[in-house]
Amino acid sequence: MTGCAKRCKQGLVKFAVTLHKLVTGTLIKDKADDDLEMTMVCHRPEGLDQLEAQTNFSKRELQVLYRGFKNECPSGVVNEDTFKQIYSQFFPHGDASTYAHYLFNAFDTGHTGSIKFEDFVTALSILLRGSVTEKLQWTFNLYDINRDGYINKEEMTDIVRAIYDMMGKYTYPVLKNDAPKQHVDAFFQKMDKNRDGVVTLDEFIFSCQEDENIMRSLQLFENVI
Amino acid sequence: MAAGVATWLPFARAAAVGWLPLAKKTMPKPPVDNSSRSDEILYLNVSGVRFQTWKNTLDRYPDTLLGSSEKEFFFNEDTEEYFFDRDHEMFRHILNFYRTGKLHYPRHECIQAFDEELAFYGIVPEIIGDCCMEEYRDRKKENQERLAEDTEANESMDAPLPPDSTPRERLWRAFENPHTSTMALVFYYVTGFFIAVSVIANVVETVPCRPPEGRVKDLPCGEKYQLAFFCMDTACVLIFTFEYLMRLFAAPSRCKFMRSVMSVIDVVAIMPYYIGLVMPENEDVSGAFVTLRVFRVFRIFKFSRHSQGLRILGYTLKSCASELGFLLFSLTMAIIIFATVMFYAEKGTKGSTFTSIPASFWYTIVTMTTLGYGDMVPNTIAGKIFGSICSLSGVLVIALPVPVIVSNFSRIYHQNQRADKRRAQQKVRLARIRMAKKGTTNAFLQYKEDRGLGGRDSDSTALCVKNRSAFEHQHHHLLHCLEKTTNHEFTDEMTYSELCMTESVGFRTSRSTSLSSQQGAQNNPTGCCPRRARRRAAMRLANSTASVSRGSVQELDTLHIKTTSIPPQTRSSLNAQADNLKLNCGEQDFTAAIISIPTPPANTPDESLPPSPAPIPGILRNTRATAFTHETVKISSL
């Protein structure tokens, strides 16, 4: 009841104010300036030397990376929407937003909701210049959506479905509905050594190291920068 | 893909590591990138202003000039920079496009200049950012409209008729643009006069005249002088019918013409007369007949062909149709509301004039337009209150759409003014351009004299040569080559006209093709040469081997003359006997190409002429051998 009375009072006050404005001639509503206030979050990364020490990139490479990064995100941080947008531009045929979401979480190690340049560069350093173990560890983190140390079938299915979504509708051969499920089953067949329904980090690394294809392809992306 | 996406590509590729454990098949080999990995700064020199940017920045858009290998054409190895001889202020915007991915349109720049720069750098205008796109489009459309107006005006109005136009096309043109020929102008004024006469007659015939004998009441003049008015009316209608039929015949598309507004007005103006003729003198239909006579007043609309202002007004009203419609609708609403209110407010009073709601409409209209005749007046207090509200709101409702209509009219009127002014200026501009073009041909003729005189006074030739640029030298050499090819020479118009005059004495003239023959064709003195045009064509082939000689030649066989320009100085000493031509470096004269058949010189050169240079008779003799034989050539001696 008090809420209703309060609202009535507010309405009355507003009406009186409007009437007053009408009489005195100021008909234009004063818009609050908070519309123009945009929260300009600006983040500056640590020094170049520190980053060089922390990552496997040279100073020049860091410079090139930062210039590109800063050009696209002048505020210094990437939020999830921008991240999804950027990643979707590489896969115009399908829907990359789900996978981008998982990627974002993998990059955003501090779970702050935005990626800073340090996160970006750290992840890139691992992916491009890291050791095999590091790479596999990163990939495991990507698959482990809830960060509990285990990959179960649901998580894997989500990831695989997100990857298949990126392909889009028009594929050859035609994408069947149970293709992700079959893929996941094959994966678990390979990775889950003790058949307990989940894949741990050790099982994952061990199984990957057994597979020559995976080992070979891990070297593929070293020359990206 | 947007520029910035290129910078994220390494990240996307790196993220692909996440797919590897899932891959069913082996990954393909990555592309080998042999280009230098380290980024370098490029220097771009645009008219002296040096810009520097990363190579990566320019590589973002590989389908533009700066992003592709096309820029290598502009690379200056001495200074190790890319040099562009373009506007550096506009280049700023272009470079910013590479940097930020958004192209902005600078508002103070000319739209065409901006478009040209974009075309040069290979950038499509469609990528202009949203912030500037509207402005860009507006200005581009305005510019295009203006250009279209100009070309349309040029084509339709002032271009001379193509020579092979049918009489029908000529007639149509005469109707549309009366100032093209005197006949059309006369007809234009005659029809205007008759429209005025007809309208005045319509008005005057209702004025009461003194009654004839035997009558007391005043009679309208129309009935008193019935025959006179009838004759006048007949004459006018005849003229109008004739005009309408002529227009119908000449119209390029008769259906379209019949549907046009002016044609409908014409028909409505003359129909009543014919219907009146046809209709019998019946009492029943005479009422209808009288109504028809009202339509005769439409003749006054025929004046819109004669007055541009009327046309503009009509066009304005047409373009403001929506505003007018809104005005009408809102007025109707207000009228109905107020009429209803007034009726019920005044219902009680005895003897009130507000007998019904439709009757109140009249009161409402008169009040809202602030006329206030006073034939209907409210008596009750409520009626007076509502009546005052009605008149106050009337002012507002009517005043609101008026500025829109006025601004439309002003815009269209000024557009018309601008178009007229531009057309007038265009003529002046074109004339000036033509003069400038003639200047260059004059220079060539000057050059020829200097060159041809060769072994003369080296000082004066040096002086004459000094003021020419390398371009002019080469251009003149080119023209000279053309002369040698065709074995004719360039001359100017005055000599040509004088030579033309001598033709009447028995010389043949023929014209050689010249560079500016189109201009020459227009400057051609119409009197003498057009007739010879036909003979010219026949002789041209034969004359291709004609020899050229300069200086005083005693005999003329055929004269090759090109009319190019009006020489600024008058050659008063040049007589009609065009064989005596003087060469003078100081004057801007030229020489005529003369073909001669060798006969012994019969007369001495004119004393007023300076002695001709010695080598020329020699030339004469040399050319003897190449003289052609042409049956139609007449030989005469001076």
UniProtKB/TrEMBL annotation, chain A:
The lineage of its organism: Eukaryota, Metazoa, Chordata, Craniata, Vertebrata. The keyword Transferase does not apply. GO terms for molecular function: calcium ion binding; potassium channel activity; potassium channel regulator activity; transmembrane transporter binding. Belongs to the recoverin family. SUPFAM superfamilies: EF-hand. This is Potassium voltage-gated channel interacting protein 1. GO terms for cellular component: voltage-gated potassium channel complex. Keywords: Calcium, Cell membrane, Ion channel, Ion transport, Membrane, Metal-binding, Potassium, Potassium channel, Potassium transport, Repeat, Transport, Voltage-gated channel. It comes from Haplochromis burtoni. Its main location: membrane. The keyword Ribonucleoprotein does not apply. One of its GO terms (biological process) is regulation of potassium ion transmembrane transport. Residues 95-130, 131-166, 179-214 form the EF-hand domain. It is found in: Cell membrane.
TrEMBL record, chain B:
Residues 143-166, 511-530 are annotated as: Disordered. It holds the Pfam family Ion_trans. Keywords: Ion channel, Ion transport, Membrane, Potassium, Potassium channel, Potassium transport, Signal, Transmembrane, Transmembrane helix, Transport, Voltage-gated channel. It is a multi-pass membrane protein. It is found in: Membrane. GO terms for cellular component: dendritic spine; neuronal cell body; postsynaptic membrane; voltage-gated potassium channel complex. The keyword Ion transport applies. The chain crosses the membrane at residues 183-204, 224-245, 324-345, 351-373, 385-406. SMART domains: BTB. Coiled coil: none annotated. The keyword Signal applies. Residues 1-16 form the signal peptide. Gene3D superfamilies: 1.10.287.70, Potassium Channel Kv1.1, Chain A, Voltage-gated potassium channels. Chain C. GO terms for biological process: action potential; protein homooligomerization. Residues 40-139 form the BTB domain. Component of heteromultimeric potassium channels. Identified in potassium channel complexes containing KCND1, KCND2, KCND3, KCNIP1, KCNIP2, KCNIP3, KCNIP4, DPP6 and DPP10. Belongs to the potassium channel family. D (Shal) (TC 1.A.1.2) subfamily. Kv4.1/KCND1 sub-subfamily. This is A-type voltage-gated potassium channel KCND1. It comes from Haplochromis burtoni.
